[in-house]
Amino acid sequence: MLKAVILIGGPQKGTRFRPLSLDTPKPLFPLAGRPLIAHHIEACAQLPDIREILIIGYYPQTQMEGFVGDMQALYSSSNINIRYLQEFTALGTAGGMYHFRDQIRAGNPRAFFVLNGDVCADFPLQELCDFHEKRPASALVTIMSTEATRQQSLHYGCLVFNRSSGAVSHYVEKPSSYVSTFINCGVYVCSMDIFAVLAQIFHSRGQEYSCQAFCNGNGNGNGREQGHIKWEQEVLTPLAGTDKLFAMPVPNWWSQLKTAGSAIYANRHYLGLYKKTHPERLANVGTKRGEGDGSLICTVHPDVYVHPSATVHHSAVLGPNVAIGPGVTIGPGVRIRESIVLEQAQILDHTLVLHSIVGRGSTIGAWARVEGTPSDPDPNKPFAKMENPPLFNNEGKLNPSITILGCFVQVPAEKILLNSIVLPHKELSRSFKNEIIL
Ligand SMILES: Nc1nc2c(ncn2[C@@H]2O[C@H](COP(=O)(O)OP(=O)(O)O[C@H]3O[C@H](CO)[C@@H](O)[C@H](O)[C@@H]3O)[C@@H](O)[C@H]2O)c(=O)[nH]1
Questions:
Q1: Treating both helix axes as pointing N-terminal to C-terminal, what angle do 61-75 and 36-45 enclose, rounded to 10 degrees?
Q2: Which of 13, 113, 143, 231 to mutate to test the pocket of ligand 1 (most atoms within 8 A of CB)?
Q3: For the whole model, what pTM was predicted?
Q4: What is the value of ipTM here, to two decimals?
């Protein structure tokens, strides 16, 4: 029996994903019509041995319970239990795993997966598990690894490993100078003995804290929670070179979801994966709607996802790489490409939407133009990943990126919105270019 843990962080995380994360917690942001971590759950559920998926984070229960209920219902017939476990405070990337160790160990799984909730991929979980189980009995963790450029590798965990055995000899989290182009994808298989390592870290921390508290005469020394454990620095780094840490390089598509710009890129890839895994979800076949209802929609340039409850005028043209959410209305002559339109948005007649995300309940008037700048990885650099540039450049100007409308924004007819970010509930009265509209 196997289990999986999905780490989703909490409300203070995902700040670079604003304004989209103001409305929906980042782990639930829809890509190709499904919440980000529903793709993780779907990948886990493909494995016949998976029995339980534990989502660990510090979002309030109320923000996660609807999603968890939907997932439980979806996978009830496959006998997979899905639960959300809330940390009382941010416990870091390994503290939650240790805190909820009894829940992970319950039922005696032979191993468990750990997936960062903010990565997107064609997750090769069965291969990763088979690889891990073929390593020596001493193996505690196998890391899924991919290659990045030399420069980009500095933003990730970097690893040096033996290409035939997979044994990791050196692991550095976000090094300041070049270590390796092989990076940590934030996807792991762990043996159950990893809890002994976590217990050791937790208890040594306890001694450190009580000593500091004694010396300072106050609570827990530096104010950090004793249960806070950094998986990368406190677990992976010391395990390197001990024959307990392994890496499996994979050629599959993989990306992080840090900025809103990366959502368009991930949306495109998840739509592309549907061709292999769930072609019935796509509205690719001629002019037919996805999800098997077969009614006519409009002209579609693959790949396109349209929620069955959306209303799309037959003269609209969608795609490539478009996802249309529930209850969306698309008027006559509308053209949308490389974009995500979230639930209940309305796009009125003859409007053009390019490289943009239209927030929940937003309205774009007729003959308007909403356009952003694509922020894809550099196609001329092998292994290049998405850049996650800051919002502003050194001159204090907005870096060109996709256009984002927060929820319930109103764009009047015949206006142009270019490379701009609009915060929720704004009613625009004119055109904007390269601006954040607060
Ligand atoms: N439950 C919980 N989850 C957390 C916490 N802190 C972070 N996480 C979750 O853990 C994942 C990674 O955390 P980050 O702190 O955002 O790390 P990162 O910059 O993305 O780097 C990590 O991922 C890279 C791959 O995407 C790796 O290359 C890198 O080595 C590292 O593991 C995210 O899904 C985040 O939501 C926490 O306190 N509690």
A1: 40
A2: 13
A3: 0.94
A4: 0.99
